[in-house]
Design goal:
The chain is of the alpha/beta class. The chain is built from six helices and nine strands, in the order E-H-E-H-H-E-H-H-E-E-E-E-E-H-E. The longest helix has 15 residues. GO terms for molecular function: NAD(P)HX epimerase activity. This is ApoA-I-binding protein 2. One of its GO terms (cellular component) is mitochondrion.
Length: 196
């Protein structure tokens, strides 16, 4: 499976470089690992919480790459929300994504969502905010400040009320764009994300 590239968001100020990347067990979590690696390359200070590691060799490679870049992994997510608010400037939600129906409600995802719902620092969700239905939108999930749609916005993005919505899909093959009738936005210059 082809994983989209993840790049740092222009909306994250440089003076606030600490980011907690929370990764679920499936593809969205793997994209979170790639995102953490890119954040590290661009001089942010990511920390990863990845409690249920996938046995998939590709995902294992992503984990190893993060470890080799000295990105710290948390052994547990503090349930005391204030600790997270104080330690980090933003949270990347890569918990459930589009495959939510498989993992919804199962541990450790349910406990993570319960914590993320109370966080006060900005949350950046990758593709589909965790706890949302991909089609109908929010059903008691989290409320991210920023949404980064991968490839193209999903139906549920219509319900997104946060500050900024980006799409990261510049490298989609043309046949895929045609097949799904995606009308990708113009990406300025060499930008890999574009604000909607």
């Amino acid at each position: 499976s082809h994983l989209p590239q993840a790049f740092p968001l222009p909306s994250l100020p440089r003076k606030a470089p600490t980011v907690l990347v929370v990764c679920g067990p499936a593809q969205n979590g793997a994209i979170g690992l790639v995102c953490a690696r890119h954040l590290r390359i661009f001089d942010y200070e990511p920390t990863i919480f990845y409690p249920k590691r996938s046995p998939d060799p590709l995902y294992r490679d992503f984990t190893t790459q993060c470890e080799k870049m000295d990105i710290p992994f948390l052994s547990y997510l503090p349930t005391e929300v204030q600790l997270i608010n104080d330690a980090y400037n933003a949270v990347v939600d890569a918990v459930l994504g589009a495959e939510a129906e498989v993992a919804e409600g199962r541990e450790p995802c349910a406990a993570i969502l319960a914590t993320l719902k109370h966080i006060r620092i900005p949350i950046v969700s990758l593709d589909v905010p965790s706890g949302w239905d991909m089609e109908s939108g929010s059903t008691g999930g989290i409320s991210p400040d920023v949404l980064v749609s991968l490839a193209a916005p999903k139906e549920c993005a219509r319900r997104f009320l946060g500050r900024q919505h980006f799409v990261a899909g510049r490298f989609l093959p043309y046949d895929v764009q045609k097949k799904f009738e995606l009308n990708p936005p113009e990406y300025p210059g060499t930008e890999c994300v574009v604000a909607l």
